[in-house]
Amino acid sequence: MTQDLEMKDSSTPTNSASSPVPSTLQHLKEIASLIETGSYSKEVRRIARAVRLTIALRRKLTASIISSFLDFALTPGSEAHARLSAYLPKEDDHDMEVDAATTAIQTPVKHLLPELEIYCYLLVLLFLIDQKKYNEAKACSSESIAWVKNLNRRTLDVIASRLYFYYSYSYELTGDLAEIRGNLLALHRIATLRHDELGQETLLNLLLRNYLHYNLYDQAEKLRSKAPRFEAHSNQQFCRYLFYLGKIRTIQLEYTDAKESLLQAARKAPVAARGFRIQCNKWAVIVRLLLGEIPERTVFMQKQMEKALRPYFELTNAVRIGDLELFRNTANKFATTFSADRTHNLIVRLRHNVIRTGLRNISISYSRISLADVAKKLRLNSANPLADAESIVSKAIRDGAIDATLDHANGWMVSKETGDIYSSNEPQLAFNSRIAFCLNMHNEAVRALRFPPNTHKEKESAEKRRERQQQEQELAKHIAEEDDDDF
Questions:
Q1: Pairing of strands 404-407, 368-370
Q2: Inter-residue contact 287 to 258 (CB < 8 Å)
Q3: Each residue of 293-339: pLDDT tens digit?
Q4: Is the CB of residue 165 less than 8 Å from the CB of residue 206?
Q5: Is 19 left (phi over 0), alpha (psi -120 to 50) or beta?
Q6: How many angstroms from the chain centroid is the CA of residue 366?
Q7: Collapsing DSSP states into helix, strand and coil, what is residue 153?
Q8: What is the layout of strands, in order, in the sheet containing 412-415?
Q9: How far, CA to CA in Å, does 430 sit from each of 61, 193, 289, 421, 438?
């Protein structure tokens, strides 16, 4: 009796362990089934979910798994199968035996959908980029784009937008980004004619990135201003657009609009997109310094960003103090970092802000000071520091940066007494702007709480309630997966 009980107890874990964990190949087959279902029912959200699941499996892709999947999804011996298999490295004997054993049981799909074939191109392209085979990735992406051009199906838009991105990315990695600019413009025109809005915003961002990569800011602004406007479909693409718009506005000296775009891009970016958020914060710090603002210390102390933002923290400290020598040393110390971030030209513009800040501190501290002492305190290293100091002081007085007068005969700068700011209208204006902000927020909250008419009279049936709850759960899951998507 006890022996039977022991045998039953020992057999229990073997039964639980016998349920196999789905392999990567099995997951890919489920994704293929999801694409097939979405293609037949014309549900784009199913194909979008398939692409997100593929990105989650990206790290597990190997040559043998992709080869087995190509044998399953494509007809063996077909043109697409031969082309894609040529990009994959040859497996060893052991892998080939395993693949033969797994594919012998499977029956290949007889009818090939265009969505499934384009998906196979995307899968191979991801593998080539991860394996750093950029030349092969260029060839594969070019073939896939040539095939996508001939297909006008709305169920292909999600996969095609991914292909557009990796098409540009593969050429960027090899330094040949200028070669595809004409092709990207043609693709953007085709997407506009086909009303493919997701493809339009993806290609617009790729074109802006292409122009900004070669410092063609005027052409980027012309394209952006003339591109058709529509509601954003992808949060990631909208964040990229705001970032590129902020860079264009910064170069065009429109610092206020640039600051809003860059800060909005940093706020909307997913938490996982750390590199993108770091770039947004770097440009936003420079723009705020150019506006005469000093960013808060918490900006530089964000989690996992302290090291990357350290050069900009020291630069901000030099601008805040108004020490020209410290600013010059900081710019030289991190010149490599600033050049890599393409912010070196903007930092050169900050020299005037540093001088103005130092001059403002001097005017507050001294009621009268000689221009020679001004040049000494500002550490002006030039052939004629006295003349430079005089021109700097006169320009600051003309711009209203300091409230002082210049005595040219005696070589003095005479500061006026600072008046009481509470006797002016500035506190009233600041208080009025705060009141307007609170009122706008209150009005928006009231509008958001309004219900459509007669909703209390309509009673929801049990079937409608279940359908609504199911849709809400799918939407919440879709939003959560989209935030975790790669950036």
A1: unpaired
A2: yes
A3: 888 888 888 888 888 889 999 888 888 887 788 888 888 888 898 88
A4: yes
A5: beta
A6: 48
A7: coil
A8: 368-370, 412-415, 404-407
A9: 57, 49, 21, 12, 13
